[in-house]
Amino acid sequence: MNLRLLFAIGAASLSLVGCATSSSANAPQKRHWSPSDNIPRHVQKMQRVRTTAYSCREKGGARNAIGGRLSAGPVKSAAADWSRFPMGTKFRLIQTGELYRIEDYGSALVGTQTIDLYKPSMRAMRAWGVRQVDIEILEWGCPERSLKILSDRTRNRHVRKMVESLRADLGTRPGRG
After folding, report:
1. Which CATH number is associated with domain 41-141?
2. 81-136 pLDDT, tens per residue?
3. CA-CA distances (angstroms) from residue 88 to 7, 40, 101, 130?
4. Shortest CA distance to 53 belongs to which of 2, 1, 96?
């Protein structure tokens, strides 16, 4: 008798659940909310990005775009499109724990989500290759400062693109920012 009662309760509860879902069958299905919904990519703390590597042995030499030396120290140098990752942005590679700061840019990076990581040797650069990695933004750089630095360098097309994007994001016009 207890088994019949248990079976009856189970069947009744299943029919109630079936009714609850069938009444909303015509309603639009909501997908689960994620923390990145409705948050612009440039303010998300965690991001998946494509990375490449560069070395001071390449054409650009040992200086970064702001006049300092490329760093392989505790906080390493990195290059990116400054309209996506403003100069000064500090991040951590989740997979390795390494810390980087955006201090440089490159023509191949403009318009992409690619970050170029500084490596102290050609061997280390080649060993890194191209990787998709997760990063945690620890501190966002300053778009206004990025724009100020880049505004005097617009003879290069890739710099003009970053300046246009930064001005659009900041709502500034030529001569004002």
Report:
1. 2.40.40.10
2. 999 999 999 999 999 999 999 999 999 999 999 999 999 999 999 999 999 999 99
3. 65, 19, 6, 23
4. 96
pTM of the model: 0.71
Taking the domains of the chain in order of start, what are their residue ranges? 41-141
- Six token digits for residue 33: 């909310």
DSSP conformation letters of the chain: -HHHHHHHHHHHHHHHHHHHHHTTTTSPPPPPP-TTTTS-GGG-SEEEEEEEEE-TTSTTTTB-TTSSB---SSEEEEE--TTTS-TT-EEEETTT--EEEEEE--GGGTTSSEEEEE-SSHHHHHHH-SEEEEEEEEE---HHHHHHHHHTTTTSHHHHHHHHHHHHHHT--TTT-
Q: What Å distances lie between residue 37 and 28, 72, 114, 137, CA to CA?
A: 18, 35, 21, 17
Task: Give CA–CA dist 109/112, Å, rounded.
Answer: 6
